[in-house]
Amino acid sequence: MAAEVLDGKITAAKLTEEVKKEVAEFRERFGIGPGLTVVIVGEDPASKVYVSRKHKACIDTGINSEVIRLPETTSQEELLATIDRLNGDQAVHGILVQLPLPKHIDAEKVLEHIRPDKDVDGFHPVNVGNLCVGRENLVPCTPYGIVKMLEMNEIAIEGKRAVIIGRSNIVGKPMSMLLLARNATVTVCHSRTKDLAAVCREGDILVAAIGKPQFVTKDMVKPGATVIDVGINRVGDRLVGDVNFADVAGTAGHITPVPGGVGPLTIAMLLHNTLKAAALQCK
Ligand code: GUN
Description:
Bound molecules: guanine
Radius of gyration: 19 Å
EC number: 1.5.1.5, 3.5.4.9
Keywords: Amino-acid biosynthesis, Histidine biosynthesis, Hydrolase, Methionine biosynthesis, Multifunctional enzyme, NADP, One-carbon metabolism, Oxidoreductase, Purine biosynthesis
CATH class of the largest domain: Alpha Beta
CATH topology of the largest domain: Rossmann fold
Strand order of the largest sheet: 1-11-8-7-5-6
Order of helices and strands: EHEHEHEHHHEHEHEEEEHEH
Pfam families: THF_DHG_CYH, THF_DHG_CYH_C
Subunit structure: Homodimer.
Pathway: One-carbon metabolism; tetrahydrofolate interconversion
């Protein structure tokens, strides 16, 4: 039997509608809108697309949006000075520095420079620490969106075996914390994991976040499992995920497509986090 496709666009639209209502209430109460500033350094084509999508989503939701475009040659000091200015600007409630940054810039230093209560990515060590001790304050958007998608589609997490492929700070690690907090039994796999396919087959929920096109095949999937594909890989002129959708769709119970799966949720949760950051700062 073919898997049920989890449509991220529908879930994201519901989440965005809720945020939109709350943004209107926020404006009514405080006389200003929540404000997000995105900083992009350089000319990475994919980053430019993502940043323009974020900007449009903010505008559509009533969130004030500013994009600061800096040249590839921007020094680390210049970028840190920009963040200093945004940290001190009361109209800016959320700051997002689009990754990846040019090689001469230390991304970790930059992310740590953002005020934790304006860190709408949830990448600052203070927010990472909060997540690890069970305080879900500003939570990384992609894994947070995945949890919302599972919850809104009534896919049980508690007591389930969850297997995550990939241990990145952006997805794999925070995903593990969010699923653990919801009482899943979590395994995080990576490039040194032995007998990866056998481990993956234990997952009632399988999250693929490794950046390898169509890496997950049906021999790695437990029949009936929920398969979440975080990958966005360009192959020729096509976008494909980390999951071989056609192969896995006959085995999985639920599956997310690429595009139209996890991507829209990431943006919805960015809007959610921006509103949350604004609320934290204006209470
Ligand atoms: N580049 C790809 N994904 C992300 C993300 O979630 N946040 C930031 N800041 N950059 C990214």
